[in-house]
Design a protein that fits this description.
- By secondary structure, the protein is α+β, with helices and mostly antiparallel strands.
- The protein has 2 domains: 208 residues, no CATH class; 137 residues, no CATH class.
- Helix content is 49%, strand content 15%.
- The chain contains 14 helices and 10 strands.
- The strands form 2 sheets. A 7-stranded antiparallel beta sheet has the order 6-4-3-2-1-5-10.
- Strand 8 and strand 9 form a beta hairpin.
- Helix 4 crosses helix 5.
- The protein is elongated and about 90 Å long.
Length: 408
Amino acid sequence: MKPVARFLAALCFGLLSVAVGARAAEAGPSDSLRVSLLTCEPGRAIYELYGHTAIRVENLRTGADWVFNYGVFDFDKPHFVWRFALGRTDYTVGVAPFDRFAHAYARDGRGIKAQTLNLTQTEAARLVQALEGDALQPGWTYRYNFLYDNCTTRAVDQIARCVEGRVEWPAADTTLTFRRIIHQFADANAWDRLMQDLVLGTEVDAPIGLRQQMFSPVYASRFFDGAVVAGSDGSRRPLVARSEWVVPSVPPVGHPYLIGPLAVFVLLVVLTAGVCLWEQRHRRVCRLFDDLLLLLQGLAGCIVAFLFFLSEHPAVGSNWLVLLLNPLPLIYLPWKLWRDRRGLPAAYPQAEGLLVLLFLAGAAVTGQKFPAEVYLLALILLMRSGSVLLAARGVKHAPKASSPLRRP
């Protein structure tokens, strides 16, 4: 953060500590703390697709109204982009007045659902004390993990720890997987869904339980509605006292994209089929088409391989799409261009066919769920491999005349 931002944050936290006055020792009959779980609706940007979670703390005696948010990171931190790519991004807890927090979401048309928690004053004070402890501790951060340790799981854990007794959660659908939940929110923008499917591996295809499903703000909110606090004294009470929309939802207008990825890949299959037919008819190989295909395949493979081998992001290290999308085509391309210039045969069709076969074998063995676009890409590569082999064989056996159709 900039020095001015640090000063303002420190001032804000100092005022917060005085305004809330939530220490358990100070809690008396006149104190009235109200704590709510805030669930913000998903947005259109890729980092907004799943929504957001925060904790609202109101002191009805003093009028203080603050929001604690475990989803804050610092763009000004050195090497931020590099650390983000490697999955080494540290998040902290931010604190803001509720009005400012709500206005930011209302401006984007994203609703906010508030679930007022059915906590005793002692439990509420304990929760606020824990939140303040993180917010006021200089330099406090945690290593953000999209699936296992994020703004939602942090809020859920803080609330569960503050109750006297334990929280009993409702039954969950144990057939769900991370990928199925991700698709529920990413399908609104098929390009974002495809990008995530290209980098997430087998880890997101295994069935998950309730605790893991609460990586999603929306799912966590649903589980809170059915949760019960089993008190240490044998009492039982619902965790949520009431629910309300404190910021109304505004349906999005328009469509985020003109054409979806599936339509694009279908068109590419048709284009590839046309190129292959042209090659067989003219007994020539369209080398430029294959060069562009190798270039795009290799560039995409650099991203997949980088995440697979180097990143700490969850689930990217089990992505067997790396068998199909990797840097090898990019490395092979200069050698192919050199041989093409000299009219020498290259092993392009055999090498590409081998990559596709390795990918298909990996898909069958690992059980990873790949989107239809990936299988269409594999089909394109197989079509090119077969066409190049057939066209090269036709050229090899064709007469030396300039045109095979010229009469003697």
